[in-house]
Every structure is written in C-alpha cells, then in structure tokens.
Design a protein that fits this description.
InterPro entries: AAA+_ATPase, ABC_Ni/Peptide_Import, ABC_transporter-like_ATP-bd, ABC_transporter-like_CS, Oligopep_ABC_C, P-loop_NTPase. Belongs to the ABC transporter superfamily. There is one protein chain. It is built from twelve helices and 14 strands. The chain is of the alpha/beta class. The chain has two domains: 2-90 and 172-323, Rossmann fold (3-Layer(aba) Sandwich), CATH 3.40.50; 99-171, no CATH class. Strand 4 and strand 5 form a beta hairpin.
Length: 327
C-alpha cells in the first residue's frame, strides 16, 4: 500500500528577480515499511521536496501546482492547524544539523517531552519517563543523565541520537531524514545508519532518506529517486540503480562513476561531471542536464523530456538513456 504519493509537485519561491522553481514537477511514491532514498547534488531540490511534504515554508514560498497524498488524503491544501497535528505525530523529520535544530536553552527532556505532551496528551511525569525510554531505544548510555543535559553538553553523535529519539517519540508512520549524518565522522555515521535500520525494523516506520552520498543510499534504501534542478530524473529499486538495470540516466551514471572504488586503478583520475548545477533563475531550455551531458543532442537542448518507464519499476527522464555496457 502506498503511504505517500507526490504528483507533479511545483513549489516556488517568489523573489524580486522572478520565480525560483525549487521543486519543479516532482512525482514520487513511497510504500509502507520501505525506505526511499533521494539523492542528488546540492541545489537539486531534495530538501525542498521534504519541506513541501510538511509545508515548512518561507513567507515567499508556496505550492503552485500538484498534490501530496498521505495515507490517501491530499495534505497539500491542509490548513496550518491540520498540519500542526500531522507534523511530529504522523510525519517526523530529522534535520541536517542537530545543533541548530535543538534549542540550546532547553534540556533534552524538555524538548522530547514537549512532543509527547502536545501530541499524546501525556502528563509531565509520563512524558519524562517516556523521554528516558526513547533515549534508551536509540542506544544512549546513561539516558537519565542525558535527559537532564543541554544540547551543547553532548557530542555530535549523541545530539543526532536525541533528534532521532524526538522524531520517533510519537511512533510516526513516516520519518524524513534530511542528510542526518553529514556532520558526523564515518564511525559515528555507521552507528547512526545501523540504528535507523534497526528502529525501522522494530517500528515499521517508512523512511525518506535524503543524501548526496550514493554509498549511504546503497546501504539504507529500498528504492531510489535521483533529483536534478528540482526534478526527478530517475526512479528505481536500489539494486537496479547500482547494477541490474539495462539503462541508466546520464546524470546517475556521472554520480556513480565519480565515486572512488577499491578495485579501480589508483593512478587513474576519477570521472567528474563537468560544469555546475545551473542557477534556478536561469534554467536551460529543454533537458536541464543537457549543458553538462556528454550524450546531449539538439533535441535534448530544445525539448524537455518526460519521466517515462524503461521497465515496469524503472523510470528515466531522458530521450536517450545510457545503455550499460556501451562505454
């Protein structure tokens, strides 16, 4: 059963210089109990897609077109009051940097308990007891001490565990993790990823995992969506993206070939995608990736491709998807 469906979503910023099309026709879906990995370079629209689901908008930002269905209900036109009930209760989010997401003047207990009292109607004592249990569930040593601590007294890994505990406090049906391991070293990153997989197995929570690291996607996700310039350019199960598909989007190919491999020639330079992501106020005509694509033709530069199926569970936004083995 589909827990989340995003259909042709357009989320724009209104500026004096024009509309910034942060999310420009995104279509995605997520099945219950699965993890959807969203990958792409900075500025590709990953985080803004997540913010659109929760309607966490700036004053000059709104949904221009499309719909977001959660558990069969269109929440894209929900009121602020309706969204405040959904946020934290049914859909939770782990933000990129826990130090800026946690309030430095409140204890950990105050911040987790607030979620429980607001959404679950717990008393102060009940919320404090549950707060300690949540810290135990995310494998924090001495949870009683951490519960009384302030965020600045904790390490980066512990702060991230507190964020996960807070996000899962109300047992949400959907957890959105926006690059939750970016500021952590590789050892702590591995622990956090393992913890999230364990909690998913225990609770059955569906996850949207946003990152620019394809290695993390391979470890965490069941399905993958590759984004570029506010659009989804490829969707497929994770094994098809990495090895089993016959076709691949040129952008996905570029991301994969730019990853260092243990079995590659150490003297050979890594392939790199030329150029940079275009400015959102000056998007190219036709395929948005065409200026950086080595396979681009005049058709690519003048016409915009649609997201089309190349197999029953594999979609690519490209006129001429790369056939693996042609290189």
């Amino acid at each position: 059963m589909k827990l989340l469906e995003i259909n042709n979503l357009h989320t724009y910023f209104e500026t004096k210089r024009g509309l910034i099309k942060a999310v420009n026709g995104v279509t995605l879906s997520l099945e219950e109990g699965r993890t959807l990995g969203i990958v792409g370079e900075s500025g590709s629209g990953k985080s803004q897609t997540a913010m659109s689901i929760l309607k966490l908008f700036e004053k000059n930002q709104k949904i221009y077109e499309g719909e977001i269905k959660f558990m069969g209900k269109n929440i894209s036109d929900s009121t602020a009051k309706e969204m405040s009930h959904i946020r934290g209760n049914d859909i939770s989010m782990i933000f990129q940097e826990p130090m800026t997401s946690l309030n430095p003047i409140f204890t950990v207990n105050r911040q987790i308990s607030e979620v429980l009292r607001l959404h679950q109607g717990m008393s102060k004592k009940e919320a404090e007891e549950q707060s300690i249990k949540m810290l135990e569930s995310v494998k924090i040593a001495n949870p009683q001490r951490v519960n009384k601590s302030y965020p600045f007294e904790l390490s980066g890994g512990m702060r991230q565990r507190v964020m996960i505990a807070m996000a899962l406090a109300c047992k949400p049906k959907l957890l959105i993790a926006d690059e939750p391991t970016t500021a952590l070293d590789v050892t702590i990153q591995a622990q956090i990823l393992r913890l999230m997989n364990d909690l998913k197995a225990e609770t059955g929570t569906s996850i949207i995992f946003i990152t620019h690291d394809l290695g993390v996607i391979n470890q965490m996700a069941d399905d993958v969506a590759v984004m570029y310039c506010g659009q989804v350019v490829e969707t497929a199960p994770v094994d098809k993206i990495f090895q089993k598909s016959e076709y691949i989007h040129p952008y996905t190919e570029g991301l994969l070939t730019s990853i260092p491999r243990l079995d590659s020639d150490p003297k050979k330079r890594l392939d790199a995608i030329p150029g940079a992501v275009p400015h959102p106020l000056n998007l190219p005509k036709g395929c948005k990736f065409a200026p950086r694509c080595k396979y681009a033709t005049d058709k690519c530069r003048n016409e915009e491709p649609e997201l089309k199926a190349v197999s029953p569970d594999h979609n690519i936004r490209c006129f001429f998807p790369v056939k693996r083995g042609d290189k």
